[in-house]
Every structure is written in structure tokens, then in C-alpha cells.
Amino acid sequence: MEPSIAWLIAGIALVVAEMMLGTFYLLVLGFAAGIAALVAHLGGAFLTQVLLAAGIAIAGVLWLRAHGGAGRTPEMAPLDVGQSVTLDRWVNREDRTARVRYRDALWDAVVEGEVRGEPGEMLYIHAVDGSTLHVARRKAATR
Questions:
Q1: What pLDDT is recorded for position 139?
Q2: Would you say residue 34 has pLDDT above 90?
């Protein structure tokens, strides 16, 4: 098989795979393989094809990483922020840890600021850290 055909098949396969994944990395690799196919078709040496494809692939991946074009999701506030919870009980009042009822389940929470601290007191979620809610008496300001 001609090297130009092999590079072209590889490039097309990478672009098709990229369409299923949506990360842009495979698109860069497919583009690099397409350029190598063009160099092969024009009679360039195999080493030139490989080095050019590798250089374009590395430069493209570095550019994507620097510009956030792939693999990153935009920062979003958790949907739970601002929702109300009910204080169920203190786990350790000195450490400000408690159990709160949210969505018909008990959650671990860190209580921020001044609260009465009585069971049934309504608090609001300010942040979510894994499965721990950070709650306070007043609603968090929205951005």
C-alpha cells in the first residue's frame, strides 16, 4: 500500500472517531495524518512524513491544552447552591459539622456563620464539596 493512502486512511479514521468523541484531540491527529499524506503524495521521504505529522500533532495538542479547546468543561455553580435544607442534628457543634435534611435524605454539612442551631432550622446551601454541603442561615448571593 502506498504511504500516502495509508496516511489518508489513518487521518480519515481519526476524524471519524473524533466525531463520535468530541474532544478535538483526534481531529488534530487526523489533520496531521492528512498533511503527512499530502507530503507522501508529493514524494517526500518517509522520515519527513513522520516528523511533520509528529510536529503538527504535538503543536496542535499543546495549542488545544493552552486554549482550553478540549477536555475542559466550563465552570458551573452546582445546581444545589441556594436550595434550602433543614438542620436535623449536630454531629459536632464545635467543628460546625451537622446533618441536614435535603431532598428527603440526610447529608453531611458544614455550618457557616451564626445560626440558632435548633433542629428544624432552615438553612441554605452555599457550596458543595463532594458529598458535603456548606450551609448558612442566609441565601448565597448569586453571580
A1: 83
A2: yes
Helix (H, G, I), strand (E, B) or coil at 127: strand
How far apart are alpha carbons 70 and 8 in whole angstroms? 24
Measured in degrees and rounded to the nearest 5, phi and psi for residue 129 equal: -120, 95
Q: Give yes or no for a contact between 134 and 112, defined as CB atoms under 8 angstroms apart.
A: yes
* Number of CB atoms found within 10 A of residue 40's CB: 22
pLDDT digits (tens, 9 = 90+) for 50-104: 999 999 999 999 998 888 655 555 566 678 888 999 999 999 989 999 999 999 9
CA distance 47 to 57: 15
Which cell numbers in the block locate residue 37? 499524506
Walk me through the domains of the chain, giving residue ranges and CATH numbers: 3-67 (no CATH), 84-136 (2.40.50.140)
What is the length of the chain?
Answer: 143
